[in-house]
């Protein structure tokens, strides 16, 4: 009986270990010249395990660069470059990362550049992630009930519910 209870508790804790957020860069507008990425980035909380998704047309690309090249919109010394949309970037460690569009004048003339400060940690029990320094408040939980909060993890929760029911049936 004690083993069954321990197993069930582990199943309940497991979703927090796999919690991640997928950030569509620029929201519904994607990676494009008419988005203010400073404003968009301020509305996001990035933590280790999250994923950035850059969606863009063939007019754009994504370069990851260092801070100096970001400030100067220098596209020559990139760390990583991709021109195949969507481009997925895993945020695997706490650090600040810099992204620019290497196409002519898109970074310097049209502001197509993004700074991402990744914090270590995971989703807190309250459902929000720690805010970067200087952020006035944590945004509210997404609307839409469990689907809004859990996002793509709803199938995991359904699976846990099925296992839970089966174990309760065996114990009863």
Automatic annotation (TrEMBL):
Stretches of Low complexity bias are at 120-129
- Pfam families tied to this protein: Cu_bind_like
Which domain of life, per UniProt?
A: Eukaryota
* Region of interest called Disordered, as start-end residue ranges on this chain: 120-148
Q: Which Gene3D superfamilies match?
A: Cupredoxins - blue copper proteins
Keywords for this protein: Glycoprotein, Metal-binding, Signal
Bias regions of kind Pro residues — which residues?
130-142
Q: Which GO terms describe its molecular function?
A: electron transfer activity; metal ion binding
Could you tell me which InterPro entries the record lists for this protein? Cupredoxin (IPR008972), Phytocyanin-like (IPR039391), Phytocyanin_dom (IPR003245)
Q: Where is the Phytocyanin domain?
A: 21-120
User: Span of the secretion signal?
Assistant: 1-19
Q: Which GO cellular component terms are attached?
A: plasma membrane
List the PANTHER family: BLUE COPPER PROTEIN, UCLACYANIN-2
Name assigned to this protein: Phytocyanin domain-containing protein
């Amino acid at each position: 009986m004690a083993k069954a209870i321990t197993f069930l508790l582990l199943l309940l804790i497991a979703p927090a270990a796999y919690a991640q957020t997928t950030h569509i860069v620029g929201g519904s507008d994607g990676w494009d010249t008419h988005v203010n990425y400073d404003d968009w980035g301020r509305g996001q909380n990035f933590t280790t395990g999250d994923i950035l998704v850059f969606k863009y047309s063939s007019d754009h690309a994504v370069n990851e660069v260092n801070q100096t090249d970001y400030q100067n919109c220098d596209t020559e010394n990139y760390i990583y470059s991709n021109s195949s949309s969507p481009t997925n970037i895993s945020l695997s460690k706490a650090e600040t990362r810099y992204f620019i569009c290497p196409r002519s004048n898109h970074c310097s003339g049209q502001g197509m550049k993004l700074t991402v400060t990744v914090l270590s940690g995971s989703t807190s029990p309250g459902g929000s992630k720690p805010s970067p320094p200087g952020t006035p408040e944590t945004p509210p939980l997404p609307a839409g009930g469990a689907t809004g909060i859990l996002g793509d993890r709803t199938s995991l929760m359904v699976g846990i519910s099925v296992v839970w029911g089966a174990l309760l049936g065996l114990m009863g």
